[in-house]
From TrEMBL, chains A, B, C, D:
Organism: Streptomyces angustmyceticus
InterPro entries registered for this protein in UniProt: KFase/CYL, KFase_sf
Protein name as catalogued: Cyclase
Ranges where the record places region Disordered: 1-22
UniProt xrefs under Gene3D superfamilies: Putative cyclase
Molecular function terms from GO: arylformamidase activity
PANTHER family per UniProt: CYCLASE, PTHR34861
BP-aspect Gene Ontology terms: L-tryptophan catabolic process to kynurenine
Top-level taxon in the UniProt lineage: Bacteria
Length: 322, 322, 322, 322
């Protein structure tokens, strides 16, 4: 809460900047179209089943410069318009608790990591649509106060695959996409051409909107009100390409939502219909620079979620290796 | 606390199994011998400065089978003799807090992660010896209730390097090393020969004692009382080889400590003298199996600590890619 | 977990020490007999509605010596057989965070307070029997991840009433009741006679078994396995007297439970049937001494739960004023 | 953070509304004047030593109507301009963790309670001035990561004494004092006359500024920037009267601070010089109504802090009994 909020962005009028309004019926048709249920075992590893050892080998072979770039944001203990549940960080030993020698310094960390502030992975149990988790599992039977029994983060394990950076501000020659700007299938196709990369089977697609730079230069705002992200009309393209993971420097969904009555339609399509985990709230600024310097928008990506039994996701600090 | 503790191991008599006993004066001479202060910039990245882009490239080139093996233990919310500060995991939304659709399931996690239960990375600020952190920085001036201003985990960033597994039970043909069994320089040299691998500059050395298997089969015990780990006389060899990271399925130190008046002498040598971060409490059981199957004890290792400003380390779930 | 557990008590054979075994059918008859639903407004203040301003005045008039005795146990951050989810206590400022002057010292506290370690009040939402909360409210509709919408602790507010100490070890001339010892209606009647006190309408009844003294002298044990407490056959007497609150230096229930298939039958009777909140895990040692010195077993009792919206109870530190 | 902040109050110009500016030298003279060191045993019970059994008896005798009024604010889990570290509240059992019957609902609470949002008691270890705690104890030696070894909250125990409400808006016939308005000795004397009450030895003095009503009607603001509270020139009067406790519906200090270089001068005077604990962030609205109805501004006050070893204070929910 220290520091004032930035100038609140004015979201574009519905039906313009963030693209065509979508009815619930149209959405449900889209959901049915991209649905990939009953396809993999184990089911709750979802689209990560697409990442075969062969994909792992090929992604490792992408390493050229040997530059490793972290994609996580700092642990944020300060409340703000984009951080209503600030993370905790307390020192539990300053060398005065456990007897020396050596003196030890220890700390406690805590966080309600979903939301807009913490870089995290959404496991498949994070979202349900019409009462169902991915693969048609009834949410009520799968998730309770003890956590998720289907689609929990340990089912995913680590991910080692090819990452592709869709650096839209770089394509457009601007600092960032304004909050509320929707990314459509056409934008993806243009970015592929401009950046010289083609999204393929098993890839992790990372959308840079430049939101981290905007926050740094113009101040924080409430991304629940307005944020750049994917329009649902971009999802069929991603489904056709057979991606394994979708990520962004926001939470992937454009806001305001273009879909009537749905606050996070891309979450519903990716997590529930397609079985594609999401990476939310990345910091892609350093990767953008590194990619521009080398002209390479595909790279080895490694994501190592914590093994939290029953967890609906995990804070992560993914690394891209160019 | 549910579930009884396993049969408490009987630590070997001092000077035998975990022997030779080491005086404080001998330890200080050892400390001076392996000390690597004033060597790198940034200083608080310590021995990770040894991992150059060339190392990264070569480690990526080690990938053969494309098998990715996670090395983290599950988040442990149950108190026990090896877990006096159990981790927290609470559901903060069961689809009944944030309005649908989609329904969202969220959770809070918290942990005082140092200790013997959580797989974590020790940053260089974790330990001080004789009032000094690595590089001779005065601990009192560098660490306070706000965290560490030198040697905090963000200074490390992600690590991508060659990992080497010292699978001592595999060498010895036993299930595990008994708690209290010290690993000496000679054990390391024997393991290198038996496993066909040589520790080199910039490597991450991972010691498997089989403690996770022992815990599973014989029950939990207090590793602060007895655990297999490195004797201080093994450290000069590791220092000569120029390692970047040291890890174990315990906390690296043999206990009881062979050094008079020091509870964690390997921590002091690695973190404070050498600037070598530590990985504590790994689960190396699956990696042991995978390495045995392929006969390959060197592999790509990726460690991605959370970016916690001021943090003295981070829970992690490292991944080995064979 | 530091410090060994005390010698585990041997629970008495079922049907002997902890009294007659009770079938589920007998229990349900008992439940119906003491049920007090549809009686008060607001309903979720339950039996605290019995405490009228007249009761408050009369309880204040009980003060004679002016001795105030705290009844709470210390915040327990150490795991143990009776404390599987230890409380958290971290310093958040040691005078080095917020700028001086004055320097400020601050701390974070956290606790999952139900259980056997923390002195706390159970609000009426804490327990459900056969799917119902007190007053017949369906638990599923009243309690979710956001907390309780009926029977939450703010509905109770503070309690100022007459407290009555049933000091059974004092009556029996022993240090404590052995874990597993059941307290029956006859024990209550005997204690009233011996201590010169009669339980009346609106009273808070506090049972001392001496468990805190036993823990101090003989070490901690798991009270979920064996603890002294009320047998269900004592409850009708308490119901007839019209008590407002029931408390104990355990969690009120004798364990092992005498009722087939019910782990906490007194909880079900008090909270669900009678609308009587519970005080669990008191420390009644100092009060026992003060009552013996003055010969007065009735006194002013004040309980001030925290106002936690949706909370199912609260840590408290009740005070008796003699 | 949900919900906008209220219109930020404009603090009065220094030297006008919040009273005469005070130099550091003048403050130090004031500190020396009200200092009460070396006076009591145990020292860290401070001015609560003034509350003798006789005071307790007389305060209990004040009860007339038998109305009990809680003075705590609700546990606040929402970040806002007055709540940068929101409290935590998570359900740890929704009847689906511990086996029924009965089903049990449990919750975890956590809070960094000092600040402007939580009703809490400051123990004497909370503040240090010029490196010293109350009684001249060196803060560095008394407070570390394990908590306070002098002046911790268990040293206080429960407080049962006479409370006096200084209802300044009632005296002035307004809804609230504007943030930044200082309360001087003359204001206290006027209030005593108008309300028919005289502050005496061992009393708990509670200042109502109406801030809770202002927050409800005009929205939240940052009380660190502007709040109504005591000017330091009111403190000698309170010291002369021999009060035991000082409380307010803010944090007692007027802000901006009238003292050069001191952010919380009343904290320094009360806690450090006088040994008087503080109650911060009370809700005195209901008490104001009850006092006006009965015309009685003195009453029985009971404060029961949690027994947190090493704690610098405690969340509380004090109760006034009229």
């Amino acid at each position: 809460m220290t520091g004032g909020a930035g100038a609140a962005p004015t979201p574009p009028p519905a039906g313009t900047g963030n693209g065509p309004a979508v009815s619930r019926r149209e959405f449900d048709a889209l959901f049915a179209r991209v649905r990939a249920w009953g396809r993999w075992a184990p089911a709750d590893r979802g689209a990560w089943n697409r990442v075969t050892p062969e994909h792992v080998r090929r992604s490792a072979a992408l390493v050229r410069s040997g530059t490793a770039v972290a994609l996580g944001r700092p642990w944020n203990t300060a409340a703000g318009p984009d951080n209503p549940t600030p993370a905790l960080h307390y020192m539990s030993d300053l060398g005065d608790i456990e007897p020396p020698e050596p003196a030890t310094h220890k700390d406690f960390i805590g966080v309600d990591y979903h939301g807009k502030a913490v870089t995290h992975l959404d496991a498949l149990s994070h979202a349900a649509y019409r009462g169902q988790l991915y693969d048609g599992r009834p949410a009520r039977e799968c998730v309770d106060a003890g956590g998720a029994r289907f689609g929990a983060v340990p089912a995913l394990g680590p991910l080692v695959t090819r990452g592709v950076l869709l650096d839209l501000p770089a394509v457009a020659g601007c600092g960032w996409l304004e909050p509320g700007r929707a990314v459509h299938a056409g934008d993806i196709a243009s970015a592929e051409r401009a950046l010289g990369v083609t999204i393929g089977e098993g890839d992790a697609v990372l959308l840079r909107s430049g939101s981290v730079r905007r926050r740094r230069e113009a101040g924080a705002w409430d991304p629940g009100t307005a944020s750049a992200g994917f329009h649902v009309d971009a999802v069929p393209l991603l489904a056709e390409r057979g991606i394994a993971l979708l990520g962004a420097d926001g939470d992937n969904d454009v806001r305001p939502s273009p879909v009537d009555g749905l606050h996070s339609p891309v979450h519903a399509l990716a997590l529930v219909a397609m079985g594609v985990p999401l990476l939310d709230n990345l910091d892609l600024e350093a990767l953008s620079v590194a990619a521009a310097e080398t002209g390479r928008y595909a790279f080895l990506l490694v994501v190592t979620p914590l093994d939290i039994p029953g967890g609906t996701g995990s804070p992560v600090n993914p690394v891209a290796v160019l």
